[in-house]
Amino acid sequence: MRSVEEAIEKLREELHAVADPNKAPAMRAYMKDHFDYMGVQSVKRNEILKSWIPETRSLNFWELIFGLWEQNEREFQYVALELFKKRKAKDFEIEDIPFIRDLIVTKSWWDTVDMLAADALGKYLKKFPEATTQVISDFRNPGNLWLMRSTLIFQLKYRENTDFELMKELILEYHPINEFFIQKAIGWALRQYSKINPDAVRSFVQTIELKTVARREAYKYI
Question: What is the pLDDT at residue 183?
């Protein structure tokens, strides 16, 4: 395809062809009516992407991502997330971090932020570990809920390469915050790392007064 606009228009036509408008209200309700939906379920959307994504490879990645993000219907943001899932850590550039930050704080809800944290921020910092201190400092200082959540869960796919000291530092800072999405992220991060080092997680949890949601998630596998 010759342009981002052409690519998105073709995608819109293909999504519209398989959309079920009767499903859209339930999809909106599930996301607390924050976003509009066409009514395209993931199986049909992913079937379209098998041919659509290869056709976009000549386009500028970030122009395409932001073009998708600007669309009103949530399905377009989900397509952008699929592009991040397929993007390898080696493909990120050092100057990409403002783009990642903008996406996290725009049209923010758990359904996009969680995947951006793991598949965009996580991959970026895997390639540029020397940037971690500055990026995490920038993300934790503004007091934005979704940036804070991202700092807790960007390592979800790091497994044995997880910086547990950084995770503990962030949890110690955030755990008094009475916000469900922060507490859930604390528990999720600990639960994930407990698959790799259950003793370390158990020992840490015993030293801190976690709220119920975070504690329940942290102890799920230990």
Answer: 98
